[in-house]
Amino acid sequence: MSQEFDVVVIGGGPGGYEAAIRAAQLGLKVACIEKRLHNGKPSLGGTCLNVGCIPSKALLDSSHRYHDAKEGLAIHGISVGDVSIDIAQMQTRKDQVVAQLTGGVAQLLKGNGIVWLQGTGKLLSNKQVQFVAHDGATETIQATKAVILAAGSAPINIPVAPLTEDIIVDSTGALAFSEVPKRLGVIGAGVIGLELGSVWSRLGSEVIVLEALDSFLPMLDKLVSKEAQKILTKQGLDIRLGAKVTGSQINNGVVTVTYQDKEGEKTAEFDKLIVAVGRKPYAEGLLDASSGVAQDARGFVIVDQQCRTNIDGVYAIGDLVRGPMLAHKAMEEGMMVAEIIAGHYAQINYDTIIGVIYTHPEIAWVGQTEEQAKAAGIDVKAGQFPFQVNGRALAANDAQGLVKFVADAKTDRLLGMAVIGSNAGDMVHQGMIALEFAASIEDLQLMTFAHPTLSEAVHEAALSVDGRAIHAIQRKRK
Predict the structure, then answer these.
(1) 354-464: CATH topology
(2) What CATH class is the domain 168-277?
(3) Torsions phi, psi of 138, nearest 5?
(4) 354-464: same fold as 4-155+280-348?
(5) From the candidates 38, 344, 451, 471, which is the catalytic residue?
(6) FAD/NAD(P)-binding domain: from which residue to which, for each copy (predicted)?
(7) Per the annotation, does 52 bind a ligand?
(8) pLDDT of 271-293, one tens digit each?
(9) Structural domain boundaries of the chain?
(10) Does the annotation list 190 as a binding residue?
(11) Predicted confidence band of residue 475 (pLDDT cuts 50, 70, 90)
(12) Hey, which bits of 305-345 come out as E strands?
């Protein structure tokens, strides 16, 4: 007789494990299937905790501290002499952070009475799941209420730069370099490419980023993307736009990349090459033909606004479905689905999902850009304020970037916020909360912000929307 659970979750990443935990909190009997082996051991947390968000942020932080010690302390009157980096220790610390967090997720599942099944899961018909354990043992599991598909995503590989064991790598391989490459190439100037390029650039690599698009970070407000490109270029990233990679060849441990730009065919030589051209939904072996679950041409599972598939009792969340491939989006979808399965109403506001790029300075945004609002036919007013005149930022010698707000000129309602600067990923939450509560720009203008703080730039940017910023000369408005 097969095992029965109220809910079976396939995938133990951020979306899957949060769905499992919330379902268990709501009194449901839950199993979570996860196949990942990290360093040879079963591991929860998905891409994010094992080879994505968390290890990359650990390396970003280590590299920033090294660069700051080497380049940024003298202005404070601090002398440290020669500064060196122990890459092996940096990687060890990264692995310790990963182990602590993935182990913590395992304890959370155990503490909530969730059965962790270590192996693969394939959805069959009638909410049945074929489970194959790592030792090959197979059984069919029945979900009485629902199955949640949360298998995540995988890096996109490109034929012109096929991966090798240690020279041409994807984002996972780029987290595991044992030494700093002298010349590093990055294909793709998106979030992952810029973050990984920043890590190794700070540690001493000469980094060239090849981006096929002619525009830099096109999803951002144009003012913010222009500022980001200027800052990252000044830091040493050689960002080449309109550069379409057409081939690669490895000789004697050096990879020669051929690419095409507006001037014609060019080549560049690297010691390591990172392919960071995006991610795709990971549905390999996930859906049996009998499941009947519909997918689109790109492999995404088709769902409605509450993550229901076309099959009753089957839901799909996170990177498997439409929308941004972000861990926090997957988490909220997982909890939303758990609530619905338990008989409650739940709905995510997809208009207030934050995006963050963890370069230094960070880049973060929420809601609409000025360009998006105008394209939607909205009469827009906007304002921005630079950190270079913010007392707290100057005191910290970290005054790059700005805060920008976009609002509806007729109703005064806040439409979007963007920040490029220190702690932008935390600061942008002020805009997210304001959007959730349908705040006006006047609401933000009337609030009292502590002095001296970075968040004063938020207040000044809100005032600037109506030409009222105090610490910047404003144009007189009619």
Answers:
(1) Enolase-like; domain 1 (3.30.390)
(2) alpha beta
(3) -120, 140
(4) no
(5) 451
(6) 5-334
(7) no
(8) 999 999 999 999 999 999 999 99
(9) 4-155+280-348, 168-277, 354-464
(10) yes
(11) confident
(12) 314-316
